[in-house]
Amino acid sequence: MLATAAATLIAIVGLATPAAAHVLVQPVGAYALTAGRIWSAVAALLGLAGVVIGGLALARSAPRSGAGSKRNPAIAAVVAGLTCAVIGGLVVAAAEGGPGTGYGIVGGFVDLVVGAIAMTLGGLAVSRSRRTG
Hints:
mainly alpha; elongated; 74% helix
């Protein structure tokens, strides 16, 4: 009886394993939101905000006089760009497949580029505001 139970258990596990593997290997839909895609989209939005803030800070990089002179939006652009690039790097490092697998690797590479642009614009604005002040 013990041998029959063991043989039945092995048969069930042996038949269930290929079925479970088949479910896990199913392709992800093009519009399905996976964790990697969500992280890369959030990072891209943060990086885009950093690019906008860095561009605006670079356009008016002269330091302001008065109470608001301690706040420098260019530093916020650098921090947003750095955060975007770090999240993008983590998404790319954690991806186990290529484009279209649902890991967000394409968004991770976009995050690396957008983060670098935001950091560059913010850094230029910081250096320009320190030179003119």
